[in-house]
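Example record used in the benchmark description.
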Amino acid sequence: MGNLGKSSRDTSEGEGPVVLINTFYPRPGKLDEFLEMQIAEARHLGDAARAFGWLGNRIHRARNNQKVVVTAFTSMAAKERWARSDLFIEHRRRIELLLELVESDPFDLVFKSGDL
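Model output (structure tokens):
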């Protein structure tokens, strides 16, 4: 069981795809506005983000009114370049007024079953 939970590649060094699970906690009454803005931003920034190594995302609305956005990048290095870009910094500035908290954690794929 020595490798349980570890991928075949060490993505901490910036190699291989990485999935970020971002949990957004909107301010009271800002849930729908945040969702609308996040979807519009994803459409608006998609081509530019792809040039940085963004693979895509899925926006899920939690039944308890939290949001989870699963975002994938070609590598941690690509994600870090995008996070430092002026486009992303401006995006973050626009959405932060609607949020109380954001939790973001990178994950490596360990097992896949079915289509998601």
